[in-house]
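Worked problem 6 (solution included).
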Amino acid sequence: MEENKDKKIWSVYGGFGFVLGEFCRTFKDEVIRIEKNDIAPQSPHILYGISTTDNYNVFDSPTLDIETNLIHFMDVLDSCHKKYGTKFEFILISSWFVYGVPSSPEFPLLETTQPDPKGFYSITARAREQLLISYCETFGIAYKILRLANVLGSKDGKVSNKKNALQFLIQKIILNETIELYDNGEFFRDYIDVRDCAVAIKSAMESELPYVIYNISNGVSQKFKELIDWAIRYSGSKSLVMDKLDKPEFHTVVQSKNVFLSNGRLRETGYVPRHSIHETLMKIVDDYQN
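Solution. The predicted structure is:
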C-alpha cells in the first residue's frame, strides 16, 4: 500500500488484537497490519500496541512482561530507526495501569499525575514509556503515548478474571452463575467502548495539540456494582451477587482500587463518544446471548 500526500498509512503492531484490531477495521484504508513476529515497519508512521495485559505473569512466567513489553518493543523501535533514521513518528498504546496505586489519589488522574506502578506488567508498561521518551528525545523522533482506560467490546476473545473483569462476569451472568465481587463492587472504573476507543486513538495520534501523552477514556466514573446489577436486570439473569471475602494481598498491592482518568486533552482534539456505557453493555449481553 502506498501513501499519498493526503493520507498517512500506519504500520500497526498488534493489529490482530482486540483494540487495534478494531482500529484497523475502522480505518482499513489507512493501515498495514504487521505480522506478530515481524519487527520491520512498512511505513514511517508507527502505531504500536503489542503488550502483555495483566500483572499475574509473575507467578508462572516472570520474564514474559520484560520480553514482550521491553525487549520486543525496543527491537521494533530500533528497526524503525534503522530504516527511517529520524524521519518517522511512533505512537505507543499504553495503559492506565502505569499510574499504579497512588498513595494519595486525586481523581480524575491527569496525564501529569506521577506514575507509581507496582506489578510486573504495570512497571514494564511504564518503563516502556520512559524508554520511548528517552530514545525519541535522544534522536529527535516524533512520538506520542496513549494511555487507555478499560476497553469493552463483544469482540474481545481474551476476557478473564485477570483482564476485563466486568466483561468476564457478564459471561457468568448470562449463565445464571453466582457472582462474587471484591469489596462488594463498591469501587469505580473508567470504561470506553472499543468502537469509541478506535476513534479516540485516531483523534489523539493525529492531533496537532502540544501534548505527547493522552488519556484515552470517556472521563466518566462508573461504580462497578451498579454496572453488574444493570447487566443482571437487562439480561434477565437469575445470578446472585455475593461479597468475595478472600481478597488476595497481591491484588491489593499491585492494583489500584479505583480508577478514573481525565480526558480533557482528548476532548480538545474534538473527540466525542458515541456509545454510553449502557449501550455498550447492551451490545455485549446481546452478542453473548445470541
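Discussion: Residues 76 and 161 are 30 Å apart (CA to CA).
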